[in-house]
Specification:
It is built from five helices and eight strands, in the order αβαββαβαββββα. It is an alpha+beta fold and 214 residues long.
Length: 214
């Protein structure tokens, strides 16, 4: 693999990256958020603003977990690198909390867009159900452990599954591309991924890549 590919693989192996599947029909609407949209009346386009979106932290090497959406409707996704850790896990969690990044474990249906009030606060038990980033990583390691005798999913202890439900990190992306990545915005995607290696899905990934680089 190239140095860039090796970096992405390392980020996924060490749970330092999150992924987001994008509905096939929504790529243009998704990508325009990173550019700020077009200008009007001959004016230059506005500076892009960070925005929050739902992502998933996969277990080490990206194994054992379903991604959001069906394979045929959400064929391709993007990878975002998380900010490098410069201190302890507690300090990293402090940065997560300060940014307004919200995290829920596998099997919990946060449905964020339906559970935020007008002031941007979580309702209907969603705030109480949140977990820390380090707790999410610990659970992911349990899911990927071949010696595991079981783990917690959706509030229940279950025997090892072939595939576990996705978790959710509702975090900031996009914005100023010159800014250093932080939990106030992790910036632009660092890679694309495709969910199967079938011919049609590989073509869909090439189309997504063309949209991103066009």
């Amino acid at each position: 693999p190239s140095p860039r590919e090796s970096r992405v693989l390392s980020l996924l192996e060490t749970q330092r990256a999150v992924v987001k599947t994008v509905r096939n029909a929504d790529w243009d609407a998704f990508l325009v958020k990173f550019s700020g949209g077009g200008g009007t009346g001959g004016e230059p386009p506005p500076e892009p603003e960070p925005f929050r979106t739902s992502t998933t932290l996969l277990p080490p090497s990206g194994k054992k977990m379903r991604c959001f959406g069906s394979l045929n409707e959400y064929t391709v996704g993007v990878v975002f690198a998380l900010p490098p850790r410069t201190g302890t896990a507690e300090e990293e969690q402090g940065a997560v909390e300060a940014s307004g990044t919200w995290i829920w474990p596998s099997g919990y249906a946060a449905k964020t867009e339906f559970n935020i009030d007008r002031k941007g606060r979580l309702i209907n038990g969603r705030d109480e159900a949140r977990v820390s980033l380090e707790e999410l990583r610990r659970r992911n390691r349990e899911y990927a452990d071949p010696e595991s005798e079981g783990y917690e999913i959706g509030g229940r202890f279950v025997k090892p599954l072939r595939e576990v439900p996705y978790n959710e990190l509702f975090l900031w992306v996009g914005g100023d591309t010159a800014a250093s990545p932080s939990y106030h915005s992790v910036g632009l995607p660092v890679a694309l991924f495709v969910r199967t290696a079938t011919y049609g899905h590989l073509v869909a990934m090439l189309r997504a890549r063309s949209r991103m680089t066009g």
